[in-house]
Design a protein that fits this description.
This protein is an alpha+beta fold. The N and C termini lie far apart (146 Å).
Length: 617
């Protein structure tokens, strides 16, 4: 039993040792293949061409066993990788010359090669890219890839290989241009290693398929390659393209300028630019919209078709928690200390050492439209430290006038509010002055005006209209013209006194107009009381509470009481007794006011607003 176990353990050790040895051998072969593809082959190819052109006798390098490497997976992959690195170096070095061959197309990408420009590739530039890369591939193969140095058809062999290479690499360039048009990949300088490998593998596969076809037609004289040839060439050039992409990634990481970080308080943005200073990648941390306590991180890449692709996540410290809605980025602009990201209706600005600012362009547009509309119907002017504001309706009729001190714009001094009827005439208005009376007027059905001021109501016959100011920049005035007598104007820059004086001299007092009770004595000396219409006051005569507007005869000696709400925020009813008396001439006396026959008393229990209307003569 123990012998069987020992034998099994020995077999496992042997297999492990054999596997490790094979892996080490493949790695070594890969290294030799890398040298062979990148250095030895190009040198030998150039030496052969020089010897045939000028008759020199330059020796060839054979430091590795090419036949052995061709039967080793590591050797084959190493040779492919070395050739790809070499071709990449030639592509970068000859980019300007090759662009001339490719109709001067800027922004061409060949199997993941470094991007010269960043604009989206169009149909025309796809062809230019194909020509560019095909020219580089044909020249590289015809000049630097060795053939049989003793062949009687040496130059024909080189030209044939160049023709096949032109088709192969033109296909890779065309595939690269087509991929650029899709916008599925970041531009070359912003592409990740994985993106470079996938991009190169796809373009290389296209080149391998065309290589198999071109090789069959040009070299073998047949219409189609075999499936084995097709699969082999597609796989070989896919590996070539992936190696090319890896070289592109390494080259960009080594040559791109250092990314710059713009810090605005707790928020920051890091921007990577290409060698021309164009932004190609951004990383940022910003407050979530509507929830500034939550941070959102996002990154964006410039894509081959010119747009930006973004993804976002909730940020907690340095950790990513949940995916979030990615912000849109249409363009990124940078200057010395600020980066600006332009999105769909949104602008984000990071100022180094300053504040992060997010601007909703739709909201700004709405505000601008509102401000423009507001400015159309509102005007302000400042004269001698006083601001006069005017507001107009949609027919440009003034509806509001006010003045405020420039030293304290929130403090209202004089004001007027005006409403109009459909026919354009004034239907109601109020004019007032700080610390003074306010006059309110509304037009009645009979054309007269009901005017309230000084806690009293008047009936006034006349006309009210708005007239222009004395000069074009002066505010409008409200002009009051009684049926008989001179007019008075309310000028917001002067005050209300002229209007008030005119009103009191030309208006007729309306007893009970303020809702207070009315006590009347007719020509025969008979008295009566009409109940208050105000909700805060009620009258009680000999225990009977009058309804609002109810009239009841009274005589001296009747017990008259006022029930009043003297509360502030809540009803507090207080009952007050009113004592009748008889004057020296025998007329009824109520409180401190004597009522003569034909007299009406608008009665306030506090006596502050009592008004006696004398009999009409």
């Amino acid at each position: 039993m123990s012998q069987s176990v020992d034998a099994s353990q020995a077999e496992v050790k042997h297999k492990s040792s054999s596997f490790l040895g094979k892996a080490v051998s493949e790695v070594a072969d890969f290294g030799e293949g890398l040298y062979h593809g990148a250095i030895e082959n190009p040198i030998n190819g150039a030496s052969q061409l020089a010897n045939h052109l000028v008759g020199s006798h330059l020796p060839e390098l054979h430091l590795v066993d090419q036949d052995r490497l061709s039967h080793s997976a590591g050797g084959v992959l190493g040779t492919i990788a070395g050739t790809a690195l070499d071709f990449y170096a030639v592509s970068v070095a000859t980019a300007g010359v090759a662009d001339l061959v490719g109709a001067g197309v800027v922004g061409a990408e060949a199997a993941g090669a470094a991007t010269v420009g960043t604009e989206a590739v169009t149909t025309a530039s796809v062809l230019g890219t194909a020509l560019r890369v095909g020219a580089v591939g044909a020249a590289y193969t015809a000049v630097l890839q060795p053939t049989d140095a003793k062949s009687d058809h040496f130059f024909q062999d080189r030209l044939t290989n160049g023709a096949v290479a032109f088709g192969t690499f033109a296909a890779m360039g065309g595939a690269a241009g087509a991929l650029n048009n899709t916008g599925l990949f970041a531009i070359s300088s912003a592409r990740t290693l994985g993106g470079n490998l996938l991009y190169g593998g796809l373009t290389g596969t296209a080149g391998g398929i065309v290589h198999a076809e071109a090789n069959a037609v040009i070299k073998q004289g047949k219409a189609l390659p075999s499936l084995a040839e097709l699969a082999t060439d597609a796989g070989t050039y896919a590996a070539f393209g992936m190696a090319y992409g890896a070289a592109n990634f390494a080259y960009n990481r080594a040559t791109l300028p250092e990314a710059k970080t713009y810090t605005s308080g707790e928020h920051s943005a890091t921007v990577q630019t290409d060698s021309q200073g164009n932004p190609i990648k951004v990383n940022a941390v910003v407050p979530a919209v509507g929830d500034p306590d939550t941070k959102v991180g996002f990154e964006g890449f410039k894509m081959t078709d010119g747009h930006w692709s973004t993804k976002a996540w909730e940020q907690y410290g340095n950790s990513r928690i949940l995916e979030a809605v990615a912000p849109s980025i249409n363009d990124v602009k940078i200057d010395d200390n600020q980066v600006t990201m332009l999105g769909n209706g949104v602008v984000r600005q990071f100022t180094d050492g300053g504040e992060y600012k997010r601007t909703d362009l739709d909201a700004v547009a709405r505000q601008d439209a509102y401000d423009a509309e507001y400015a159309k119907y509102h005007k302000s002017a400042e004269v001698d430290g006083v601001i006069t504001n005017r507001a107009y309706d949609d027919q440009m009729r003034v509806t509001q006038l006010d003045t405020r001190s420039l030293a304290d714009p929130r403090h209202l001094q004089n004001n007027a509010y005006i409403s109009y009827k459909d026919d354009g005439s004034i239907s109601s208005l109020s004019v007032g002055q700080e610390g003074q009376r306010t006059i309110s007027a509304s037009r009645q059905a009979d054309g007269s005006w009901s005017v309230s001021t000084d806690n009293a109501v008047f009936r006034w016959n006349g006309d009210i209209k708005v007239v222009p100011g004395a000069e074009s920049d002066h505010p409008e005035q409200v002009q009051f013209t009684p049926a008989q007598g001179g007019a008075a104007s309310f000028n917001v820059n002067e005050g209300i006194k002229p209007v008030a004086d005119m009103m009191h001299s030309t208006a007729t007092y309306v007893p009970g107009g303020t809702g207070r009770p009315v006590v009347s004595v007719d020509a025969g000396g008979n008295a009566s009381i009409t109940g208050s219409t105000a909700g805060w006051q009620r009258e009680i005569v000999n225990g009977h509470q009058l309804a609002a507007g109810e009239t009841l005869p009274i005589k001296p000696g009747d017990a008259i009481q006022m029930k009043m709400d003297v509360g502030d925020r809540y009803p507090i009813w207080e009952l007050r007794n009113v004592i009748w008396g008889t004057g020296a001439d025998g007329t009824p006396v109520l409180g401190t006011s004597a009522l003569k026959p034909g007299t009406t008393l608008d009665f306030d229990a506090n006596a502050g607003g009592t008004k006696v209307v004398e009999p009409q003569q």
